[in-house]
Amino acid sequence: MKKIKIKTPNRSAEKATEASVDYPEKTVGAPLVENPKMSVRNLDVSYSSKQAIYDVTLDIGKHEVIAMIGPSGCGKSTFLRCLNRMNDTIENCTVAGLITLDDEDIYAESMDPVALRAKVGIVFQKPNPFPKSIYDNVAYGPRLHGLVSSRAEIDEVVEVSLTRAGLWGEVKDRLDQPGTGFSGGQQQRLCIARAIAISPDVILMDEPCSALDPIASAKIEELIAELSQNYTIAIVTHSMQQAARVSNRTAYFHLGRLVEVNDTEKIFTAPTHQLTEAYITGRIG
Amino acid sequence: MTKLSSVAREQKIQMGLKKRHRAETRFRLYGAAAIIFGLMCVFLLFADIIGKGHKAFQSTYINLEVTYDQSVLNVTDPTDAEQMSLGDFHGVVKLGLRSRFTEVSGRKNKRELYSIVSNGAGYTLRDRLRDNPALLNNKVKFWLIADDDIDTYYKTLGEKNGPFKGRMTTNKEVWLKELIKSGDIEKRFNLNFFTKGDSREPELAGIRGAAMGSFYTLLITILLAFPLGVAAAVYLEEFALRNRWTDLIEVNINNLAAVPSIIFGLLGLAVFINFFHVPRSVPLVGGLVLTLMTLPTIIISSRAAIKSVPPSIREAAIGVGASPMQVVLHHVLPLAMPGMLTGAIIGMARALGETAPLLMIGMVAFIVDVPAGFTDPSTALPVQIFLWADSPERAFVEKTSAAIMVLLAFLIIMNTFAVVLRKKLERRWM
After folding, report:
1. Would the ipTM clear 0.90, i.e. be above it?
2. Which chain B residues are within 8 Å of A182, Cβ to Cβ?
3. DSSP per residue, A161-187
């Protein structure tokens, strides 16, 4: 795991206020990468008349872990949920702009959100296993998409997914027990196992540790590091330390705008924009 | 704050605590009193109904020697149905009575004598002969069902205020005493009550017609109302857009739930019977009317059940790529099913006890035959209770209470079924 020393607040500096800061015309840093897995261009999202995201352009590279940070209500979760069209389920949510996965427009008419979500999995803030057995929780996705046919295949997928999620050793004798009967951390890892069981290309994580204690969080973070070898991961987090520990790149959102994107190390040691600096030094948040 | 005031503060809190404890105790007592009152009412109700109704499960029988006299019967071949249906079996009963009480003379007295045995006795004799043709021209002793006047009198013999006389005459009392002395009268289990349809003769009236009518009616109701209600609720909750139209539909469903049931009866009369020409008085039309009446209840409770499924489960399913239909079928419905069933059972219980709409569609008719299907004229349990309660014969009092017991048993069975089903389907989450 990387060790990055986060910039400490400069006590003498004047507290940054909204009025004193201009939003950048363009996102500062390096929002674009070569050969991206997903790319987002000029994304605007609004709920009814309230705009939540303004003109965000960002690339997500292959097999990278990108962290979205920012104060509450900055639109980072909304942004994440656009990437697998979870926002479709919210009424009055309108999405404008272009999002592509492997150069394919995911909001195109021809794209079935069901097929998209088989490629872009998601893990939610609160562990939400189905009230079924552990086995059925993991097997649900593959069965749904017809990825497995025989019992042996399902068994294998369940074992591989649980192993990758670091849960196999703990639950292998209790596969028929309900997934809801385990600790929060185990439940969250079960949810990760459920997400990787359909072997998606991208895994979205919406504050996966915010409902967990530090030990469980640490396990999830280790898991993210391991998973990043095979998957592209986009993670929203409240904790800057977590972002610093797990991600390669970090994007800082502020009031619906993507202020700065850069390598995690650069963001936390030498932020360019004053808003970013204010946030990571703890003056806003 | 000073030290002194902190002591005063402590005192005030102590004073207040006592008051609070008293209020707490009173509050608990109110609750307990309410429950005790409720239980007492239930107990009184049950005591009254069972106290009256248990008598209906027995009826009085008279042991009588009769002769299947070929010349009286006009039957030569007991296997010939035509002959049997024309045969004068009541004449056989009359002759049997006359030879039992030889001292009776005079037309009036004889007619009085004949009336101590029920009109139904002749049919019993016919059935026995049909089952055993060898009985022809033989003497046999049978337990024949007594008339309701005798039945009521005999059942009330031991009562403090003396037996209920009703239409009993001195003659009948004398004969009855004689029968008691010779042991030729006794109370036996009243099978008729459970196997026969309605009758003008209380001793022959049974609940089976009404029970089967209620059964068929409720079967139609649940088969139509539950799927329709659940489908409507799922659509409104999961698929319909929120706009003026859905608001309007919601308001109307809520209003329909509060419409008096007799209005649904009138609607059924106008639409199903007069427009679609569904036959009247049949369980089919009754079931349709009760479906209309029950639908709003089921829709409302199903919607509440669907709403109570945590959104996180829906999100989880959508997140792994379930289509909207799969989300509903795999997750929402199984989790909402216990709640939906509760609603359905509440609706069905209400439908089972409903009388008013059935009056409008002719299920109040006097129907003797036990219905064998959805299109046979029939009545329903609550209507039967109403009809019997309305009848002048004293013997119908106990029948009414017994019918109420059967209705309650119906309800209890339905509720037990629902509770068991719910326990089976219930799954815990979070």
Report:
1. no
2. none
3. HHHHTT-HHHHTT-TTSBGGGS-HHHH
